[in-house]
Amino acid sequence: MRPYTGPADLRLMQELVQRTWSHRSQWHIGDLAWQRFQHLGREPEWPTALWERDGRVVAWGWLHAPGSLSLLVDPEAPELVAEVLAWADPSEVEVLDGAEHVITGLVAGGFHRVDAPSFQYLARSLVELPAAVAPPGFTLAPVGDVAARVACHRSVWHPSRVTEDSYRQVMAAWPYRAELDWTAVAADGTVAAQCLIWPDEVNRVGELEPVGTVARYRRLGLGRAVCLAALHALRDTGAVEAVVYPITDEAKAFYRDLGFRGYAETRTYRKSSGEQGGPERE
């Protein structure tokens, strides 16, 4: 085990994600890029470690305060689940229901499942996509004005720590591609809605993250239009499938209307009372 040292290690973490990706996987390579780079100055908040064998990463753990752990363990090395848990000493872990080797390790480590909001994992084929039609007065296009794109994001997720500088960091990260970062632009230049898709060219699957429409422009069909435009662009790269991970009922219904269907969901496990091995991390 060794500590995370910077962006080069994130690529190694992404390589494990890409190598093991399936509908039983919790992570997409785009998840890691977006979560790590959307904000500036947060590295000290995120203790992260990598486990390597034969020159490649076979497990990683990423702690989010207070005591919440994200992890990925190669299914061919299930014994490393216990090592990641021992390193992190988390109080809570969210895991995909299909990651049986991780769930087995959690239960063996004294964790139990609890009721908690769950992310639903949805997918759709890129065959027979509906046309992307912009409502009157709006234009669909890949990202142009970065400041306007960031203003849209900050409005949708207010209050947000995303800034122009942090978004340019996202744009510089692998596997970001500007032609998959779509916007719906009003006549005055305001970005009213946006959809970013992260491509995985090896597995030919793209992840939608993030997607949003500014409040005053909702109920006009902009979210549907901008997502379909981005999905068409994704298909043009050779991808065959798109995935998205909503948590709210409204978002789940939105994506189902776009033709996405569920294939998995997250479960939350917490350390049983009296099992916590050390102080909570802050």
UniProtKB/TrEMBL annotation:
UniProt keyword list: Transferase
InterPro entries recorded: Acyl_CoA_acyltransferase, GNAT_dom
UniProt GO molecular function: acyltransferase activity, transferring groups other than amino-acyl groups
PROSITE patterns linked: GNAT
Residue ranges occupied by any N-acetyltransferase domain in the UniProt entry: 136-282
Pfam families xref list: Acetyltransf_1 (PF00583)
Domain of life, per lineage: Bacteria
Gene3D superfamilies assigned: 3.40.630.30
Record protein name field: Acetyltransferase, GNAT family
